[in-house]
Amino acid sequence: MGVFTKLIGGAAMAAAMIASPAMAQDNVRIALVVKALGIGFFEAAAKGAEEAAAELGNVEIIYTGPTDTTAEGQIEVINSLIAQQVDAIAISSNDTDALVPALKKAMDRGITVISWDSGVAPEGRQLHLNPSSNPLIGNMIVKLAADHLPDGGDVAVLSATTTSTNQNIWIEEMTKVLPDYPGINVVGTVYGDDLADKSYREATGLMQTYPDLKAIIAPTSVGIVAAAQAVVDAGKVGQVNVTGLGLPSEMAGAIESGASQSFAIWNPIDLGYSATMLAYELSQNGAVAEPGAQIPMGRMGTLTLDDTNAGAMADPFVYDASNIEEFKSIF
Amino acid sequence: MSDATQTGRSLPDRLTTRAQRIFRSWEALLIVVAIAIFIANAIASPYFLNAWNLSDATFNFTEKAMIAFAMALLIIAGEIDLSVAAIIALASTAMGYAAQFGVDTPGLVLIGLGTGVLCGAFNGALVTKLALPSIVVTIGTMSLFRGISFIVLGDGAYRGYPESFAWFGQGYIWWVFTVEMLIFALLAVVFGVLLHRTNFGRAVYAIGNNPTAALFSGIRVPRVKFILFVLTGLMSGLAAVCLTSRLGSTRPSIGVGLELEVVTMVVLGGINILGGSGTIPGVVIAAFVMGLVTFGLGLLNVPGIVMSIFIGALLIGVIALPRLFVMVRGR
């Protein structure tokens, strides 16, 4: 009977692992579902969600997600959240379409569903929260360069590939707002194909072609790091400022060396905070997600919804010497 | 390898009664574990004992179990197929491609099953005609099948499946009983009969125990193995139909990592990973155990990684216990 008793022991262990104190039922339970657990960006978003919960008072945050970034894993998570009858689900999805049937079921059972960061097709959620918008990004990347050029000067763009949809839209939006920044003269756009070595060569080439170059704008996380390295290697720190969109963890060195004064990207803490606020508004305060609606999200202002019930949270968040230490360990 | 399989089994002890054998059998122990987990879940979460929730939870294992039945036969015969998840991706891509041209549900199902059969036949031919080790062949075809899917789809997705196609993965037969549950139950019976009540089933055991002896006793070993690969392909095609129907869309990343969960289910069900022994009822119970564990832990919002650890511990326990039992008895 040895096996038998051992197995019973195992089962008891299983029971012990599963058993945990029952949760308070009177709280509003908002589930923050992420692409996968253990990613710094999402851990930071969860921090923001907790901040919102503390501000709201009666909210319990369920921070959850699958182990791998799969749609199937997220569906299992969604099913268990439906079973728990949570009040709202705020999800950063692994698949725009595959989650729709599961999320529809959640909405059918009275659960508020919003997506944030990485969206779900409109029929699978009530609203989608974008971290920013193309016009805001286009404006921000040139503003970052202009802020450090009070007298104006030559700037160049280092993009990803000629066919990169996002980068092309952002550069187009940037061009639209250029008249707002007198003195800023965009001398050219080169393409590093999001490869570190090609981006490096293109950045070096820019500095040789335009000796008076004052700034390189790289709206790509690969290009901005390579350009900063090229500036350091060319001995032009202080003359050429590298800016654009990058990740704090990868850009910490460039900020430290002075090759980059500042750069921008979304702030995951704000994102988690806003998603929680929006989920609360929809599920508890009777806010209705419809085109044109304006929904408050606490300290982040209000979200205005477009035709597809999507909205942009804010300008990209600026990272510089004052806050890079705090964020470089996050993402 | 055959030496190792011999140590795990001893000649039936004629002094034990049939009742004792059943009581000590692997299946009985698994049932105890399943019941213990069920009770623990019911105590731990107020949401567990709800017909609809339990119904949703079955999706955690039904598709995997479909493949696990065929995989069980394959492993008993001393082979393995690690390309099953990739077959799902390819079959799903083929169905999505056909759906773009307005092929209706019956046609799509045939295409899904047909792709599965072709993939299985390809694996089977490589293993039996060229006498290659199945683990190597199917690791290769795992990349090949999913690679084709990636080439066709890139970062795109197929949507636009006909409405009636949703029946397989989202439909209900009666009350809370889903279509997938019905398929699961039917297949359990079909495979149970095939393995335990037919000459073909005896041949599968014989091959797993000693392929040479099986050959000399008149069993057409390559043919049986080929059929098993085709069967596994067919079941993967069927799982692709159900999963695609449930997700309502196809991406090349569909079902990533599912092959390991299928193998886990098979081994947990008491199938000897070295071949030669195991039963279908064992796999059925293992499917329930895995489904109950993931759903139960999910209800308590236990992070996915802890679930993986738990399943891993369960698996190692299951493999180690019989060995320990034999060692302790041998003293």
From TrEMBL, chain A:
Signal peptide: 1-24
Keyword Mitochondrion appears in the UniProt entry: no
GO MF terms held by the record: carbohydrate binding
Lineage: superkingdom: Bacteria
Subcellular locations according to the entry: Periplasm
UniProt xrefs under InterPro entries: Bact_Solute-Bind_Prot2, Peripla_BP_I, RhaS, SBP_2_dom
Listed name of the protein: Rhamnose-binding protein
Keywords (A to Z) from UniProt: Signal
GO cellular component terms listed in the entry, alphabetical order: outer membrane-bounded periplasmic space
Keyword Transit peptide tagged: no
Domain called Periplasmic binding protein: residue spans: 30-284
Family (UniProt): Belongs to the bacterial solute-binding protein 2 family.
Native source species: Loktanella salsilacus
Entry-linked Gene3D superfamilies: 3.40.50.2300
GO BP terms in the entry: rhamnose transmembrane transport
Coiled coil residues, start to end: none
Automatic annotation (TrEMBL), chain B:
Membrane topology note: Multi-pass membrane protein
SUBUNIT field: The complex is composed of two ATP-binding proteins (LsrA), two transmembrane proteins (LsrC and LsrD) and a solute-binding protein (LsrB).
Keyword flag Transmembrane helix: yes
Organism in which the protein naturally occurs: Loktanella salsilacus
Pfam families xrefs: BPD_transp_2 (PF02653)
InterPro entries recorded: ABC_transp_permease
A single Gene Ontology CC term: plasma membrane
GO terms, molecular function: transmembrane transporter activity
Cellular compartment(s): Cell membrane
Keyword annotations: Cell inner membrane, Cell membrane, Membrane, Transmembrane, Transmembrane helix, Transport
Function according to Swiss-Prot or TrEMBL: Part of the ABC transporter complex LsrABCD involved in autoinducer 2 (AI-2) import. Probably responsible for the translocation of the substrate across the membrane.
Protein's name in the database: Autoinducer 2 import system permease protein LsrD
